Amino acid sequence: MKKFFQYICYLLYRAVIFGFRITPFWLLYFWSDIISFLIFRVFRYRVKVVDKNLEMCFPEKSKAERDEIKKKYYSYMVDLMAESLKGYTYPAEKLRKRLVYDDLSIPEKLYAEGKSMIVAMGHHGNWEWTTQTVKYEHKHKFAAIFKPMKNQYISNFTVKCREQRGTHFCPIEKTRFAFGMREKQPTGFCMAGDQNTPNLKRAIWVNFFGIQTACLPGIENYAKLFDLPVIFMEIRRVKRGYYRCYVSMIAEDPSKCAPGEITQRYMSKLEEVMRNQPETWLWSHKRWKALKNEKGEINYGEIYKGM
Predict the structure, then answer these.
(1) Of 299, 304, 302, 290, nearest to 202 (Cα)?
(2) CA 130 from chain center: how many Å?
(3) Which one of 112, 159, 186, 234 has the fewest CB atoms closer than 10 angstroms to its CB?
């Protein structure tokens, strides 16, 4: 029975994808404005979570300034969902005009040296379009680490759409096996590490917006395990429906980095991005479920209690 309902949801999802395929961007954004208004003003989706996160990260800003960021965020969030769904069937040559890459000398140098790399990304800008266009602009082969959806039919279909653009998508539980690709040809492994981590025993604690934050260890651990340089991919929103990617080096030689140093550099890069374009990050995500106080004691779940 569960599979039956999942299949029905899959068929509805396919219908939605078809609808987005034939809908022009101007109409897409018209509906996005309406939906974002309903989510923000009527249903009030996670407004308290967004308020708390913004208050923690931008205590120097006035409430009016934070409210303006919040308003822009809800508009961006719906735009992002609409753009991502349309991107699955949008012609690649047109998508490349909407997301362009700046100076690529760093990955080109690594490729010339026969080196694979970890592409550290965050949930900002339009990371979905980035994984679908990166293969056309870089010489590396690319593999993106992702968490499969609970609905297997939808998850398989989404992966199929994504992989048509040349990037291999690897389930997070098979991450270690994915790194075997580097032995055949230089590969870029796209990884995001800005989510909340459920395993505090393995977490790497760093300073993020002045807050002691528990971070996923994957980027740093795999960089050191396989001796891979780590670059950062900043996805800057130029205007509605258009993005520009900037590449910078986080760690060229991971073996020379102290424990936690790579993660701190990554999160510092991300913080810089968020300060420049604060509305383009997932503020409705409960990022700080775990907090560490001045005594080093960990409090879990207190900040979002009742939200």
Answers:
(1) 290
(2) 10
(3) 112
| pLDDT tens-digit map of 238-295 | 999 999 999 999 999 999 999 999 999 999 999 999 999 999 999 999 999 998 877 7
Tokens of 204: 């790497």
For residues 37 and 142, give the distance between their C-alpha atoms in angstroms, rounded to a whole number: 37
Antiparallel, parallel or unpaired: β 290-292 and 298-300? antiparallel
E strand spans, the chain: 99-101, 117-121, 141-146, 168-171, 187-192, 204-208, 211-215, 230-239, 242-251, 290-292, 298-300
59's CB contacts (< 8 A; 6+ apart) are none
pLDDT (tens digit, 9 = 90+) per residue, 220-236?
Answer: 999 999 999 999 999 99
SS3 assignment for 268-289: HHHHHHHHHCHHHECCCCCCCC
Give the CA distances from residue 166 to residues 98, 131, 288, in Å, rounded to whole numbers and listed in that order. Answer: 18, 9, 35
pTM: predicted TM-score of the whole model, two decimal places = 0.94
